[in-house]
Amino acid sequence: MAVLPIQTGTDNPLLRRKTAKAPKVTKAILKLLKDMRETLKKEEGAGLAAPQVGQSLAICLALIDGKVTALINPEILRSGKDADTQEEGCLSLPGLTVAVTRPTDITVRYLDESGREQERCFRDFDARVVQHEMDHLVGRLLTDYVMPPSPASPAAKFVPPLPPPAAS
Ligand SMILES: [Zn+2]
Fold first, then answer.
1. 113 counts as catalytic
2. What is the pLDDT of residue 153?
């Protein structure tokens, strides 16, 4: 087992490309998952996706109900209509937190480590972690959720400046 270096940076091409599905659960993938588990443990994170350790594969780990769970080729089948907003951090963007709004319950289909298809519902924190990790599999990072500043509208020009503070 080995702790792998974490890829960082919003413009890192390894973090920005869409990953390929794992054709099947090979020995190489099991080895990668072992190394990812060790890396996640050392970094004390809630999840880790393969692109974060430089592998462009649709594989991630997520802390589910306190247990590190491997999701291979995950896809979201259903999202509930309730959402909430929470601050999230990312091992690939050290020192940054972003408020992200996400559905609070999702149903996901994926392969487990033995190659068996699973369909599971995740809620609240678990759902948030899974969605964060799945974002990595399509090259999406937390910074993509930051609202861009709205372009200056013509009306903005006519907003009078604040009056100077009254002298006392
Ligand atoms: Zn992340």
1. no
2. 52
